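Continuing the batch. This is chain 6 of the set; chains 1 through 5 are on the previous pages. Same settings as before, nothing changed between runs. Recording input and output for traceability.
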Amino acid sequence: MKKLKNENALFKEAMIAGVKYAEDRGVVEFEPTDSASEKLLYIYRLLVHDKIIQPLPEDQVSEKSLRHKLAIWYSKQLPKDHPLLK
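Output for chain 6:
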């Protein structure tokens, strides 16, 4: 798994976009007490369910791999000249 440039910043933005996507769909309402890990797993499973991203094999599902997967998903939505992609 090759680390992306600005992966941490991409992941933070991906979490914001993922929470918004899930709440706009009306399938979940995240609470302030929900951990980032819970949100991450829920967003990943929702994106897989909606066939937006390809699922990882179950034995490869870890927080690190999910963070990477969400960062990739978000980076593909950005314009080519976005500062996070440089």
